[in-house]
Inverse folding.
């Protein structure tokens, strides 16, 4: 069996084989499908051998698998097996693209997943990846066999995640669209503590890492799993959607991944209502704009009954969608910008985010807020928070909220900081212990949250020697956008009133 270090080194070598021909952010578009094809081809070879050993004839085994694809995980046409791909010396880009599309044609669930890249693509008449680079990449990928007896799904999956992280490092801020640091995913999974057979949903699933971590956390805890988790995800970007599907398959997991904008058109429904899940996890785009009051007012799924978020930040729109997607005893964990739990507190007058937060606190739906270290995420240097929701808290947690200040629980890394394994488990133990820990954890009552004007920033309650909380520019701009939106609305209402009493055109 291949070990994790060998796999990581090999996969990165494969990605680097096209360095120079393709910008770093685009590595993943070429290498991830190719690694996946290598895996399913090697597995198909193993399954075909087992079948031929049973039947005593390889041709009979192949013909039988061709007639009944259920006998194998994925059926690979002879011309598309990896040994055949490796033989190609002319028109490699065209031949490789045709081979992959032939696999997708035989396996409908791979359509739109592996066949979205054209290895023969040109820009201004020039091949993006020339024949020599393609040939080199295929040879590097051919270095190791990764069939059933060569690499365990968990180990290969970990190496695949390593590759995703390396791509994120090269992609900078835009990496936030598809990648959540694995340690954040582990913290969320350990705290949610999934049970066998539960349904888990990620409405902004990216490459599927948070869903994968939930299943891996269950496997780590249970010696035998008779009922795996049922995983559901939705992703807007079609390339990232493909990555999520491949990530599931590489980990040998089944996941129902849909494509589309979740806030605009959620795909998992029960009749005309949202489907309900036991657990919901997500790291949506922070402070996402593009959704105005008119959008929220027109919602047909009754998701935003606690209020409409400002146009400059959909954070509490995502939170409300996730809450509406929970079963009666459901729990959720969502990664947000730190400002989501403090914006508007201490200010005179109304603030949309604070008003929504107020309803969640007063309804006793917030279980915990975890402050993460800074410089973990690729889309921002600022620290994030994880907001934990519980639709039906146990008696001992009623009208209480746990605040965890984990801002110092990290090690320096390049280019990003990371939370080491022992700190991940420390955070999870603190949550499950449900008690105050000096300079780390404080449990407050609902009355204290109200007294502090619904500010739920852990740094306000738990001091650890760091500087007091700050307001970044993005947070201030969101508030200004909210004020402007409210001003426009008020002007329209006032203008309407003035017209009714005969003052036409009083306001413009």
């Amino acid at each position: 069996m291949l070990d994790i270090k060998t796999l990581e080194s090999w996969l990165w070598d494969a990605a680097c084989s096209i360095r120079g021909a393709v910008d770093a952010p685009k590595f993943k578009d070429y290498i991830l499908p190719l690694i996946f094809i290598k895996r399913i081809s090697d597995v198909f070879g193993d399954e075909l051998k087992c079948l031929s050993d049973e039947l005593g004839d390889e041709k009979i085994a192949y013909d039988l698998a061709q007639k009944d694809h259920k006998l194998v995980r994925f059926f690979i046409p002879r011309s598309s097996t990896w040994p055949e791909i490796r033989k190609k010396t002319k028109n490699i880009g065209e031949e490789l693209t045709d081979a992959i599309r032939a696999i997708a044609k035989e396996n409908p669930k791979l359509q739109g997943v592996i066949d979205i890249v054209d290895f023969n693509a040109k820009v201004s008449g020039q091949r993006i990846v020339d024949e020599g680079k393609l040939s080199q990449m295929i040879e590097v990928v051919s270095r190791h066999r990764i069939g059933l007896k060569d690499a365990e799904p968990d180990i290969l999956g970990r190496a695949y995640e390593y590759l995703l992280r390396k791509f994120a490092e090269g992609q900078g801020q835009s990496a936030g669209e598809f990648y959540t640091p694995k340690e954040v995913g582990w913290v969320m999974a350990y705290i949610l503590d999934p049970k066998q057979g539960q349904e888990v949903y990620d409405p902004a699933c990216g490459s599927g890492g948070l869903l994968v971590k939930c299943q891996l956390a269950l496997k780590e805890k249970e010696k035998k799993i008779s009922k795996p988790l049922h995983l559901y995800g939705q992703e807007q970007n079609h390339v990232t959607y493909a990555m999520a599907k491949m990530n599931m398959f590489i980990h040998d997991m089944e996941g129902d991944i849909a494509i589309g904008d979740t806030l605009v058109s959620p795909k998992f429904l029960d009749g005309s209502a949202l489907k309900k899940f036991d657990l919901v996890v997500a790291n949506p785009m922070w402070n996402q704009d593009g959704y105005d009051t008119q959008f929220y007012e027109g919602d047909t799924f009754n998701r935003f009954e606690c209020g409409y978020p400002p146009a400059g930040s959909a954070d509490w729109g995502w939170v409300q969608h996730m809450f509406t997607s929970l079963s009666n005893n459901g729990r959720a964990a969502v990664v947000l910008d730190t400002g989501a739990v403090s914006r508007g507190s201490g200010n005179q007058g109304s603030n949309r985010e604070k008003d929504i937060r107020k309803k969640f606190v007063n309804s006793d739906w917030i279980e915990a807020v975890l402050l993460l270290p800074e410089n973990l995420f690729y889309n921002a240097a600022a620290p994030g928070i994880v907001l934990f929701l519980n639709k039906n808290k146990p008696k001992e947690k009623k009208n209480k909220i746990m605040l965890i200040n984990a801002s110092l629980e990290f090690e320096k890394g390049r280019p990003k900081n990371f939370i080491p394994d022992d700190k991940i488990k420390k955070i999870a133990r603190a949550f499950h212990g449900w008690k105050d820990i000096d300079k780390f954890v404080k449990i407050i009552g609902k009355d204290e949250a109200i007294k502090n004007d619904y500010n739920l920033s852990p740094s306000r309650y738990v001091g650890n020697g760091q500087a007091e909380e700050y307001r970044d520019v993005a947070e201030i701009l969101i508030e200004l956008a909210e004020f402007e939106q409210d001003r426009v609305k008020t002007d329209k209402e006032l203008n309407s009133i003035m017209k009714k009493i005969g003052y036409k055109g009083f306001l413009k």
